[in-house]
């Protein structure tokens, strides 16, 4: 496969950061770096284990899709 190891689709931490970002934007007013840091800590501490597990569980299907697509475009 061409370069799939660098694919954002194969990086579950990217999806978790995206989830944290959505929660921060939805639930907090950010005016300073300190506000952002506090909001991220709050949302991280309130991120349920099953939310993280959902991304981990999706990895098998993502890898299989990547193989089927021969490293090409994936819809995720």
Overview in brief:
The protein is 63% helix and 0% strand.
Describe this structure in words.
The mean pLDDT is about 85. With about 80 residues, this protein is mainly alpha-helical. The chain has helices at about 10-25, 35-45, 50-55, 60-70. The chain is built from four helices and no strands.
Kindly provide the radius of gyration, computed on alpha-carbon positions and rounded to a whole number of angstroms.
15 Å
Mean pLDDT: 85
The percent of residues in helical segments reads 55-70%
Assign the structural class, choosing from mainly alpha, mainly beta, alpha/beta, alpha+beta, or little secondary structure.
Answer: mainly alpha
Q: What are the salient characteristics of this protein?
A:
about 80 residues; 4 helices; elongated
Task: Summarize the SSE layout with pairings.
Blueprint: H1 12-27, H2 33-45, H3 49-57, H4 59-68
